[in-house]
Amino acid sequence: MGKLKTLLASALVSLAFGGTAIAQEEEAAAPPLNEFPREETLIINNPEPPAINPDMFNMWVAGNGAAWSNGLHQLVLDTLWFIDPDAGLDGALYNQLAKDVWQYNEDFTEMTVQLREGILWSDGEEFTADDVVFTVETQMETPGMVWSAPFSQYVESVEAVDDYTVHFKLKEPNSRFHSIFSVRWNGAWIMPEHIFSEVEDVTAFDFNPPVGLGPYTLHSYDPNGYWYIWEKREDWDKTALAEWGEPGPKYVIYRSIPSTDSRLIDMVNGDLDMIHDLTPEGMFSLIKQSEISRGWFPGFPYAHPDPTLPMVIFNHQNEKFQDKRVRWALALMLDARAISMASYRGAATLSAIAIPPTGTHPRDYHAPLQDWLIDYELDTGSRTIKPYDPTIGLQVADMVRPQFGEEVPTDEEAIRTAFGYGWWKQDVEAATELLEAAGFTKQGNQWMMPNGEPFAFTLNTFQEGVINRMGTMIAQQWSQQGIQVTAEADPEIYRSTLPLGQYEAATAWSIETWGGDPDLSFFLDSWHSDYVAEPGERQPHRNWQRWKNPKLDEIIEEVRKTEFTDPRNLELGHEFVKLMVEEMPVIPVMSFNVFSAYDTRYWTGFPTAEENPYANIVTNWANSKYILTQLKPTKQQ
Fold first, then answer.
1. How many CA atoms lie within 13 A of 320 on its CB side?
2. Is 63 helix (H, G, I), strand (E, B) or coil?
3. In this structure, what are the phi and psi dihedrals at residue 528, rounded to the nearest 5 degrees?
4. Which of 356, 352, 358 is nearest to 334 (CA)?
5. pTM for this one?
6. Which keywords label this protein (predicted)?
């Protein structure tokens, strides 16, 4: 295995941009595509920038400068379970290195795992329970590793009962301990004990070349971190992935291509099979230029709804937003149709409820709750209204149909799946009544708070992209209704602004779900009031709104003692949704739609929304390895 220097330049890209600097960047970025049989090679866009430390493959060390999405965690690393945010090949939950699902004792203080037998590391060593025990104990003993903190927090002891059985004793009841080993985007990867046990300092070890449990090994990589090439193992059938079939490609190339325009050009030219993300305009252009390229949906809006929920987040430690009548008034001032057009050019999947409209959630949440939403009544202080409009998605589809024609679905169920089931009506009169009931007054076109000061605040948003567009439009709509709102592009929004509570309101997300399962524990446990930080202190991950509610705590506490696969979790999820509607602590807006694209020139079998939604097509997720088992070459040279 060697580091290959870049050999090819893209003349087309140079011409397209007409700049020497751009051409040199692309020359440095291009892998040696002509050295690999195209009919055996899958070329994937890695959305990350070039790795800071390309030689590092030790993914267990935090802040090591290595790439996360270069194929290593998709093709080489492995762990006990995977949960796909979509339907899955045979259900969304995969028993991977584990032979079956987790086994807890009655009070969730112990967990037993039965492992698959006959699984080999890529160097021929057998995978056993000792590898799992070593992984946990090493990270507990070594602060600064990625999973040191959760293992130290939850694990009392771990032992190998035999070669294929692992037993955990936990420090306290935890019905979701298995989720640490359950990959959604990534998870606690198992370390090869026979490699790391010989290393003096595991945090300084670069693990190059990596030894893995997945079906591929490292072939070569760019010393500048722009590309990584992986080759299928001859003994791929000795990996856990073999249960779902042989991966189609012999070679898989992950390319970091910072320019979205260059991604589009490379796909049109046949030098890229899967694109992680384009701008909405880039996707529209790709569809026009290439008849063999497509997105998640067969037509408009094309994009895949990720299991994250962009929203308006209010800081509940700010007195401006502590009255739910104010929060509801702000929601009813918004026109979701205009937000969809401004952010995604209409290609948004709207959600009025606090659940992303992705994966199995429309089946479990959005569709079943439609009647409840339609009948939901809101007291404005002057009258009772029904604020929900189930036709909003249909209206957006009608708005884009003149431009995109037959690309826009006409079937109502298909429209709801693609554009959303509905949203709140823009009702300025009701918003006025709510604010007046809360003690606000209007002077001219300016709302005044009960203390006599103007109702004004800053809305922190992303620096660019669809969330920036969304935030800008929302701020504009509120300003038009008499609230002085300034949208501020914030480069530190997730790094410090939200965690430290240094904001009044923001457009971001604090809800991320499994997507393929109705259980909400992925984000919900961190919303318990016990974790809410004091003003100015760093907030534990996800409850950026710092919202407390006794009913919310009751739901979370019951989830904690309910087994992951218990149908009761869906009932608790419905209770959560209804509480969120009633209190409106955040204003859900839409899914984070990702304009992932794939080309069918050399490979077929990709997941599709309409025929086979078995996997999330976003290329940086580790779940994407299941796609490779479904790919078949078209035999085109």
1. 22
2. coil
3. -65, 145
4. 352
5. 0.92
6. Signal
